[in-house]
Amino acid sequence: xxxxxxxxxxxxxxxxxxxxxxxxxxxxxxxxxxxxxxxxxxxxxxxxxxxxxxxxxxxxxxxxxxxxxxxxxxxxxxxxxxxxxxxxxxxxxxxxxxxxxxxxxxxxxxxxxxxxxxxxxxxxxxxxxxxxxxxxxxxxxxxxxxxxxxxxxxxxxxxxxxxxxxxxxxxxxxxxxxxxxxxxxxxxxxxxxxxxxxxxxxxxxxxxxxxxxxxxxxxxxxxxxxxxxxxxxxxxxxxxxxxxx
Length: 245
Known about the structure:
By secondary structure, the chain is an alpha/beta fold. The chain is built from 7 helices and 12 strands. The chain has helices at about 10-15, 50-60, 75-85, 115-120, 170-180, 200-205, 230-240, and strands spanning about 5, 25-30, 40-45, 65, 90-95, 105-110, 125-130, 145-150, 160-165, 185-190, 210-215, 225.
């Protein structure tokens, strides 16, 4: 029987995992909630780098890897590409299209954390939607700023930061209320793409607020690329129905 290893941690990955049977494996890095209602096996934790993942593919007789990790999980995507090359296992990837600026948007791209900090100098109330990265910099907040940080896990802030644990999808009404409560004057975001977290960009646009956008990392090529979970799921279903060669 063909076995699939699905590298996940996104809504796209979960949508695919819900259609996998017990023979297949859904892999999570360990952050966030672990689904309890899946028929497939769920594996939590790392593989031990490229060699560890290549060994896992051989030992578990994996016939296909589907990389549906977050667009910014570049290290995992690179490890998957290298390990599949070593183990001679085909690699597919779900590459969610990036958001594109629309009329009225004021996007200011930053390549890394240093670039983000440089662009935040004129502002007082940034809203961070980068995940956990800002938590490592709570002691560096300028006296002129108060940060609102939204991430998946609860975390203690300090006198200059409020950390909100929340999971999308987020709607316009909720985002407007957050902007009002936090007095947001600039948004800091990854260009994650998709609809689940896009509402913050619409609110920033309607209020004329700038968005500091962290540039997407470069990702390796896969044997097949898909723009969304539905097309990947359909192709995977056809591949699983094909007789073993």
